[in-house]
Amino acid sequence: MFRQMESAGLQDLHFWQDPDTGLQAIIAIHDTFRGPAIGGCRFITYPDTSAAIEDAIRLARGMSYKSALAGLPHGGGKSVIIKPAGRYNRGLLMQSFGRFVDSLDGRYITAMDSGTQISDMDNIALSTRYVTCTQDMGDPSPSTADGVFAGIKASLQFRLGHNELDKVHIALQGLGHVGWALAKQLHNAGARLSVTDIDPVKTARAKTELGATVVSPDEIYDVEADIFCPCGLGAIISPDTINRLRCGIVAGSANNQLADEAMGDALCERGILYAPDYLINSGGLIFVALQHARHHEQAIRQKVATIYDSLLELYQHADADQLATSYVADIRAEAIIHQASLKSHQAA
Predict the structure, then answer these.
(1) Which of 32, 188, 253, 345 could pair with 231 in a Cys bridge, judged by C-beta atoms 3.0 to 4.6 Å apart?
(2) Is residue 157 helix, strand or coil?
(3) Cross-strand pairs, 228
(4) Of the residues 78, 153, 202, 303, which is catalytic?
């Protein structure tokens, strides 16, 4: 475990168990040099505790990088709740998780993520003030989708010299909150969609309402399209899938899209433009952080819109230096975090 923490540059790893509610939860704090760690809470089934720990660590690091490149006054953190196998009271479980968050005295601010919803955040808020995405604050999913939409247009502009979506075909993987919101935006802009999801109700809706072509979860990697848009869980660009991709661009909302760092280089070698996930999908974090700081809606929208220019500039840097976009994003984020750590140590 300590080797995992050292490899990821993690500061803290916290565990909480509450037999009364069935809660088993983990909070990973990657860094707090730029401010309190912030990041969502996942509530999903894990095969074992090790998988949950690994997920929390990887996601926390990504949140630090995301916050750094977005210019937010926060470090990165992530929490996971291992979904109980038996019966449980969801409200009481979330209230117990809120006590876990509160025990860290503001070092970590939680938010929605896969498997959690606004009502969960409301229950967490009964036990702590270090929470966002409550009914009063709203859902970050539309802002995530807005940022990915802007990033897709930037990617098209860089690769094809235009950002006219009515001329492109997009293979979209995952129709959850963000994936569905993004699919609707892409459809309204004229894009042709091929979609997949493990839930047949969602794909049937996409076919009926968006005119999308539905393919199986495994077939999505083989779809010939301008853009492969992963909007589900992570680690989907792997040695098993990378050579199957038939696209010129990978740009989507999923976190940790690359199974490992080598996949970024492999995409570059194949001539596939990769939008670093923690940059293109940072709209949700921007919403969460600025809402928590009580910024106005217009300021949030303007900040999310900067993802377009940020991606274009990163692509230009990577192209000029003949480097993988994932590598350029990593070194930029790490430099920002390192500079913040130096200032923190000097102040101490």
Answers:
(1) 253
(2) helix
(3) 171, 250
(4) 78
Q: Is 178 annotated as a binding residue?
A: yes
**How do the domains of the chain map onto residue ranges?**
2-62+75-124, 141-283+307-333
Q: Is residue 179 part of an annotated ligand binding site?
A: yes
Convert the pLDDT of each residue in 203-245 to its tens digit: 999 999 999 999 999 999 999 999 999 999 889 999 999 999 9
Domains 2-62+75-124 and 141-283+307-333 share a fold: yes
DSSP string across 171-194: EEE--SHHHHHHHHHHHHTT-EEE
Six token digits for residue 196:
């997949």
Question: Please, which residues have CB within 8 angstroms of residue 334's CB and are 6 or more apart in sequence?
Answer: 65
pLDDT at 345: 67
Query: What fold does the segment set 141-283+307-333 form as a domain?
Result: Rossmann fold (3.40.50)
**What is the three-class DSSP state of 123?**
helix
The pLDDT mean for the chain works out to 95
Residue 117 pLDDT: 93
Tell me the CATH architecture of domain 2-62+75-124.
3-Layer(aba) Sandwich (3.40)
Residue 3: count of CB within 10 angstroms of its CB: 7
Q: Please tell me whether 174 is known to bind a ligand.
A: yes
Residue 177 is labelled as binding a ligand: yes
Residues in the chain: 348
Q: How far out from the chain centre does Cα 154 lie?
A: 18
- CA-nearest of 267, 225, 268, 232 to 252 is 232
CA pair distance 211, 254, nearest whole angstrom: 23
| 267 DSSP assignment | H
Contact present, 278 and 65 (Cβ < 8 Å): yes
To the query of whether residue 66 is one of the catalytic residues in this protein, the response is: no
The verdict on whether residue 176 carries a ligand-binding annotation is: yes
